[in-house]
Amino acid sequence: MIFDEKFISKLKNARSLVFFTGAGISAESGIPTFRGKDGIWNKLKPEELANFNAFLKNPDMVWEWYQYRRKIVNESKPNPGHTAIKDFENHYDVSVVTQNVDNLHGRAGSNNIYELHGNIERNYCIDCLKPFSIEHYRAESKGVPKCLECGGLVRPDVVWFGEMLPQKIFADAERKAEHCDICFIAGTSAVVYPAAYIPVSARQHGAFLVEINIESTEISHHVDYSIFGNSGEILPEIYKAARSFFN
Ligand code: BJW
Ligand code: ZN
């Protein structure tokens, strides 16, 4: 694969990389995206399901949606895009700022992960906030489980629309974005805020922005370089180019 010369020169001289990732990076692992060409949640409308009022109104249905997604996540594994991001750690200071809740970056072995929208493997009680791992509920038949301490409804530990992102994680991710040399924006429609401020912050502080996506997005006009194609193919190629500088 041939890359733009300016990008290659930036990559040669960079020390610190941020990968801002979204659902598209896990698409090649078999996990559907929310929006875009093959976004199956289009039919299920994330804005309607991924909010607290929807959960209060119909907790069983929302819980079942997450159980269904957990099953897909459990059956999937990191793809070459996740692995390449981990491999960049051999030569760079790497931070992964992800909107994904699927933990595939963690399973690929990445060390500095900022999960802006939580993690689908965790749950907590909406009343006493006690955390519960999914193991507590494997035996449960159907419907939303109740807190073992207070009987409250148990919800997934993810960030729904209208909810605050984990403040320290977001602030730490912003610091990383402000200090990186290159910010890769991979597999995200970049329409959900405040997460989408991450590449904006990077750019304001002088980072070179590289987008990797199968189609153009909201952010395409603001990046320095767009590479169109599957992240699971492009990221390993970029890593291969980077590795050659260090031999
Ligand atoms: C490939 C590929 C391949 C496919 N290779 N690429 C400013 C302006 C406007 C609105 C707002 C604003 N600030 C806040 C808002 C409101 C709202 C918001 O952003 N709304 C917009 C949608 C209009 N934001 C919020 O509500 C946030 N909270 C908040 O602002 O709180 C404020 C507050 C203040 C004071 C008190 C209280 C609150 C919270 C947002 C939470 C988002 N949550 C979700 C669900 C998480 C849990 C779950 O997973 O169920 O997060 S929604 C969903 O969207 C999920 C994702 O992380 C997020 C982003 O989606 P992502 O990852 O970009 O996926 P897709 O599907 O959109 O895109 C996939 C891309 O991949 C596509 O481009 C494909 O082309 C590409 N692709 N295959 C490369 N192989
Ligand atoms: Zn409780």
Give your account of this protein's structure.
The chain is an alpha/beta fold. It has 2 domains: 1-31 and 78-117 and 165-247, TPP-binding domain (Rossmann fold, 3-Layer(aba) Sandwich); 36-75 and 122-158, SIR2/SIRT2 'Small Domain' (2-Layer Sandwich), CATH 3.30.1600.10. It has 10 helices and 9 strands. It has helices at 5-13, 41-44, 46-49, 52-57, 59-75, 80-87, 104-108, 167-178, 197-204, 231-245; strands spanning 16-21, 93-98, 113-115, 118-125, 131-133, 154-158, 182-186, 208-213, 225-228. It has a 6-stranded parallel β-sheet with strand order 3-2-1-7-8-9, sandwiched between helices. A 3-stranded antiparallel β-sheet has the order 5-4-6, covered by helices on one side. Helix 6 packs parallel to helix 10 (231-245) and helix 8 (167-178) runs parallel beside helix 9 (197-204). The longest helix is centred in the N-terminal third of the chain and has 17 residues, at 59-75. The protein is elongated. It starts with a helix and ends with a helix. The model has no long low-confidence stretch (mean pLDDT 94). The chain binds ligand BJW and zinc ion. Ligand BJW binds at residues 22-24, 27-28, 33-36, 39, 46, 50, 99, 101, 117, 158-164, 187-189, 191-194, 212-215, 217, 230-231.
